[in-house]
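User: Can you recover a sequence for this backbone? Please restate the input before giving your answer.

Assistant: Of course. Working from this structure:
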């Protein structure tokens, strides 16, 4: 995301608007993955599943579909099972799933292809309506869905129906998630009530498990950087000399996020070269915490450094949150916050 000016602004005063057409135009890989390829994916030799996933996905990206010899999500496949129209990359955070997803996008010979986070697709349905979204994507060669999650019944019905309508038209699917498909929605809503929909959707995918450790934690120290007031002022002043930076009180900023749809968070940080958050405190409200997680995902996609005072950003989520149904989302955010405060 280009930085267009220098100086200081406040995210809590921004109210970005995004049209349906702009949302569609944004369905491409994040800038940091503009040139992601299978060749630039560095598989960890300690985890053979990473190289195995890379090999399988190169076959899938040739346009021939996904190998199905290992079976589907819910039953063992027959030796001669037909190839699946989709791949589902299941693994922990920081093992390179998004890099591989972007590599699929760039490698697949396709006229019409789209790449977006799960929340971007569901937001598009909200903006355009379900039927217009189906018409938009009908006939597309490839849909890449990053951070696939079913957080509520509405999302479940939207995505299962959308996938069911697109696959018969020849659309290939590629998705990433920190959660295996049979655990989607677990601990968040009555997922068992939607088991038929989830199972029907899963039949379109070949699961590919990717093991490994978080590369972000390997690259930096294990905790988010916390600055005192003087160091914060110095860092933000230096950054503002050559880039537009944001400077916000953390609580005011979190309150403002509630008034902005998560699909617009990417516009909230448009043109920003560094994010400043003063007086960080821990979360008491899970809805507010999850909005912050969605914001962190967009800041990480844009690779915008964060500078902060107060509580360390990797400590803002309560223990009961980290132990609950959104555990993996919170841990992914912690990993990304550590990286962004070190960048």
């Amino acid at each position: 995301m280009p930085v267009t000016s220098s100086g200081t602004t406040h995210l809590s005063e921004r109210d970005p608007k995004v049209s349906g057409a702009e949302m569609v135009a944004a369905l491409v890989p994040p800038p940091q993955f503009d040139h992601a390829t299978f060749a630039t994916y560095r598989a960890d030799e300690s985890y053979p599943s990473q190289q195995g996933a890379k090999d399988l996905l190169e076959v899938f990206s040739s346009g021939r579909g996904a190998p199905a010899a290992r079976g589907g999500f819910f039953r063992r496949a027959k030796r001669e099972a037909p190839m699946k129209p989709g791949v589902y990359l299941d693994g922990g955070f920081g093992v390179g799933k998004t890099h591989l997803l972007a590599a699929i996008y760039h490698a697949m010979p396709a006229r019409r292809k789209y790449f977006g986070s799960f929340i971007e697709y569901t937001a598009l349905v909200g903006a355009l309506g379900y039927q217009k979204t189906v018409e938009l994507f009908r006939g597309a060669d490839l849909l890449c869905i990053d951070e696939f999650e079913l957080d509520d019944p509405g999302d479940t019905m939207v995505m299962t129906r959308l996938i069911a309508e697109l696959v018969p038209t020849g659309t290939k699917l590629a998705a990433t998630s920190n959660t295996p498909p049979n655990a989607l929605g677990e601990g968040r809503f009555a997922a068992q009530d939607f088991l038929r929909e989830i199972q029907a959707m899963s039949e379109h995918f070949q699961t590919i498990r990717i093991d490994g450790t978080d590369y972000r934690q390997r690259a930096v120290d294990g905790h988010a950087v916390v600055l005192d007031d003087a160091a914060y002022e110095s860092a933000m002043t230096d950054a503002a000399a050559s880039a537009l930076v944001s400077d916000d009180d953390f609580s005011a900023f979190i309150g403002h996020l509630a008034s902005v749809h998560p699909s617009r968070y990417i516009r909230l940080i448009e043109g920003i070269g560094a994010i400043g958050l003063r007086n960080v405190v821990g979360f008491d409200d899970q809805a507010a915490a999850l909005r912050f997680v969605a914001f962190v995902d967009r800041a990480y996609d844009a690779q915008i450094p964060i500078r902060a005072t107060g509580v360390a950003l990797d400590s803002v989520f309560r223990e009961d949150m980290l132990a609950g149904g959104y555990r993996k989302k919170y841990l992914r955010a912690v990993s990304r916050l550590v990286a962004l405060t070190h960048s």
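That completes the design. The beta strands are 7-9, 86-91, 113-117, 142-146, 172-177, 205-210, 244-249, 274-280, 306-310.
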